[in-house]
Amino acid sequence: MSNSSQLQKDKYAGIIKAHAKTLGFDFCGIAKAEFLEEEAPKLEAWLNSNYHGQMAYMANHFDKRLDPTKLVEGAKTVVSLVYNYYPDQKLSETKEDFKIAKYAYGKDYHFVIKDKLKSFLQHLKEEIGDIHGRAFVDSAPIMERQWAQKSGLGWLGKNSLLLNRQMGSFFFLAELVLDIDVSPDTPMMKDYCGTCTKCIDACPTDAIVQPGVVDGSKCISYFTIELKENIPSEMKGKFENWIFGCDICQDVCPWNSFSQPHQESQFNPHPDMKEMRKKDWIEITEETFKKVFAKSAVKRTGYNGFLRNIKFNL
């Protein structure tokens, strides 16, 4: 490779990382866009075990999940980005009160981060020239945790989430897939979980079937968000008052002792949410639901689905 070509790749990496910081992303990593050979048999085994439950979309676009060049023509680079959502103040999480996953406290992250990614791509076109790419935030068949690991941002913990030594796991992942060559970062090869099994031991539904493998169809998040029918009766009494999502495996993770509050005002909860206690959740009307969760990811369950989750926890 010529020296000028390497310098250009390094320059592009510098531009990307500097702008990621400007937009408020906590970490930015770069990897070469290529087929994820090691992941193919793992994904196939996971799907064959039916760990995706009724999430039929997980079985779609198998090739695209493993190969970003099928998502963006001529793709050469995958940029992975980390955006913190750890709250300054947790909503009430006493044993009596109902609980909502921290990522859903404020405005739906898809919108907040997608806006940043759009402006990111525009900035790169202005700085670099005629480049093409796509932005993703949990919105396409892309194995974001694996790409983040490949770009050096962390390792996959026993709960299958990406863990970062500086900030744990309370963050969103997003990607830019670009058709330019950029100097890649070194993949994270080390697993810093060691012999710790706190996440496995704490999961009340035994969803973590082996280190790094989660049976999605047993996860509280799956039951309270993805499942559209009645929750299986054998799960009764196991939800520990989670009515949307679940943070148990993250809350017990020692690496999350390094979590710092986010700086994104759009992730702050609706003022009424802070006042809600068990009685208020039980008596929530459709009008209140629509008001409190107007811009929240919680809207995904719909009012009736939300009531189902509450009743199941009673």
Automatic annotation (TrEMBL):
Localization (cell): Cytoplasm
Pfam families registered for this protein in UniProt: Fer4_16, QueG_DUF1730
Catalyzed reactions: epoxyqueuosine(34) in tRNA + AH2 = queuosine(34) in tRNA + A + H2O
Pathway: tRNA modification; tRNA-queuosine biosynthesis
GO MF annotation terms: 4 iron, 4 sulfur cluster binding; cobalamin binding; epoxyqueuosine reductase activity; metal ion binding
Cofactor(s) the protein requires to work: [4Fe-4S] cluster; cob(II)alamin
Binding site for [4Fe-4S] cluster 1: 193, 196, 199, 253
Annotated cob(II)alamin binding sites: 65, 138, 159, 162, 173, 221, 246-247
One GO CC term, this protein: cytoplasm
SUPFAM superfamilies cross-referenced by the UniProt entry: alpha-helical ferredoxin
Principal location: cytoplasm
Residue numbers annotated as active site: 138
Keywords from the UniProt entry: 4Fe-4S, Cobalamin, Cobalt, Cytoplasm, Iron, Iron-sulfur, Metal-binding, Oxidoreductase, Queuosine biosynthesis, tRNA processing
Biological process annotations from GO: tRNA queuosine(34) biosynthetic process
Record: residues binding [4Fe-4S] cluster 2: 203, 219, 246, 249
Gene3D superfamilies given in the database record: 3.30.70.20
Cofactor binding note: Binds 2 [4Fe-4S] clusters per monomer.
Subunit text: Monomer.
Function: Catalyzes the conversion of epoxyqueuosine (oQ) to queuosine (Q), which is a hypermodified base found in the wobble positions of tRNA(Asp), tRNA(Asn), tRNA(His) and tRNA(Tyr).
Stated family: Belongs to the QueG family.
HAMAP family (UniProt xref): QueG
Protein name as it appears in the record: Epoxyqueuosine reductase
Species for this entry: Aquiflexum balticum DSM 16537
Gene (name only): queG
